[in-house]
């Protein structure tokens, strides 16, 4: 059984979707670690020949079709996010035309939510939610001709063309049982993170999901898929948090170190849970001498944790602050106050840990141009290492989406996938979609062209190549 994990070419629009975070177009490419874990699961099965192909850069329809004619895969796996849905379906229509016996299996949040839109062909199959165990069973069934009705967590068309949604798949409770991501399938391709400014970069995952209740939140494409599926079958409740052991993370970091990796970006929705676990993870990173970064909440930052981060090579910590306005923070159920934001930033700066702030423009109807500009002023005044400005998006399945529908805030009348680093489809009484887009551009230009940002980063690059990668990413962010 030949299985190819494929990122289809961009046949709709101009820029490829970023499939790891899942809510923007690519600013700088990063490996989709979630997909590579699934690939490792399939690779571990007897009789499976697994490959990975990324056609999202510099490939047109003619080249895509030429490759399909020469390929002999039995299954094409596609990790679909909302922004890629239309293009993925257009590209995979060519699979059914040129490789009519092959199956196309869609994973990820786009397929999990837009099941009916995705099942446009009898040989399309949707893997809903958390994919590893489901894909393992599905590959076995397709290889042996077993019926699909006994496989939890999939949707498909039956012989009559009717959509069938099998029952929910139970979540994996022991993440240590999963193999490490199949990074070797990426071949010679190299990735770069402008925040780490170091060759030999990859991403890693130590936990899944987040227990907090921010009304707008979609932390990652894997979390979004898990939450869509779990909430649908469990009265709207979020799935439980699952974590790898520190020993499992240690084994993976040792392997990466031996393979020559020098930098790791942890893509956990929330990396810092308590001092004991954080201490163990920091000791692992210090042991192998790699630079790294992560995402965390401001209310998790203590002086002890900041010291651990500082001593273990942490080169950035992403803090989701969204706004410095306490009324807005309360409305969006962020569970933090502006004082906690200021305290966390101060603590991290005192210990020499670079801080990146994630700001969300228009995250609730209390937002105005003045609150947006106040947030920008505060971000600049605090002189943090970096800021990322996004515009809120009403992702289906979130509380914010329901509020937008109930209050008529959707400018387009319905949800449409948008790049949160560029576009808005939300109109509030005191802030329109177009005003949000203008404020986003204003904030980006004001911050990234400031002397503080330029002088902070220019001397940190370890090579001309890393500087050029970062410059291209900044150009895409500012100009598209």
The main sheet orders its strands as 2-1-3-4-5-6-7
The tally of beta strands, per DSSP, is 15
Largest sheet: 7 strands, mixed
Helical stretch tally: 17
Mean pLDDT: 93
Low-confidence parts: none
Q: Please state the overall shape, judged from the principal axes of the Cα atoms.
A: globular
| Helix percentage range | 25-40%
The helix/strand class is: alpha/beta
Question: Beta-strand level of the residues, as a percent range?
Answer: 15-25%
| Alpha carbon gyration radius | 22 Å
Alpha-carbon distance between the two ends: 40 Å
Could you please describe the fold and organization of this structure?
The protein has 480 residues and is α/β, with parallel strands linked by helices. It is built from 17 helices and 15 strands. The chain has helices at residues 33-43, 61-70, 85-98, 109-113, 115-118, 132-144, 221-233, 246-258, 275-288, 303-311, 326-331, 338-350, 369-381, 399-407, 433-448, 451-457, 464-479, and strands at residues 2-7, 49-54, 75-79, 103-107, 124-127, 154-157, 163-165, 201-204, 207-208, 242-243, 263-266, 291-296, 314-322, 355-361, 386-391. The strands form 3 sheets. Strands 2-1-3-4-5-6-7 form a 7-stranded mixed sheet, with helices on both faces. Strand 6 (154-157) and strand 7 form a beta hairpin.
